[in-house]
Please model this.
Amino acid sequence: MNKGMIKAEVSVKKGRKDKRDERDLSIEGPIGDAELPIMEHLLELRRRLIVVLIPLGIVTLAVFPFSNISLRFMLINLFSKDMPVFVYSPMEWMSVRLLFSFLFAFSVTIPLLIYETFAFMRPGLYPSERKFFLMVTIPSLCCYGLGAVFAYLFVLPLIFHYLIAYSGDIAQVALSAKRIFSLILYTAVGFGLIFQIPFVMALAVKMKLVTYSWLRDKRLIIYGLIIGIAFFLIADPTGISMIMAVLSIALFELGLLITRYLGRKGDSGEVA
Model:
């Protein structure tokens, strides 16, 4: 009698536990997500930062002895003729070399940084969010790199050629190493961000935040914003802001073509 009652209670408890498990599994959540103490998250974050910072420091130190050659090669490609570069403080050239070495190392270790960031966030992400992270990060970096290369190969040589020729025979141009490198850096960053325009537009349409028709109807307003930012907020005498404005408008039109194709593709998918 007692044995039968015990078995019945065990079966009832097991049934309740199975129902609880089914109820828990029915709640959608990130695969592998688990509640962990905040200290464990911080320790993991520190470990992953160390994994990134150590290679970053090693590459920076390895590149620094060769930074003179690299900088000379980079500057020669920008000027129509071999022009001397001047420094106006004892530490100016050293700071330029250190900054160049760090930026080169950072560019090399970006894939590792992305991997460690993704690995840290992965347990708390849904499968769709993991795909979205990779879908956004990799193309965005490619667009940024394309913009930086475009600035170095086409925009900067044009700007320097114009500035040097404009001085004429009256004044002799003395190029400051720090200012030249800063101009190269800011221009590469600016054009890298500008080249994100078609990708951001396509992503916004894909996520249904905006539509192709909305972007097309707001075209003149967006043109006005681009021209206002270029000529009033970031205006400069070198003409880079004007090139940025023209290129931004051209890339916006390219984004419209891409979003138009995505909109047609989405409509055909819904009809099917």
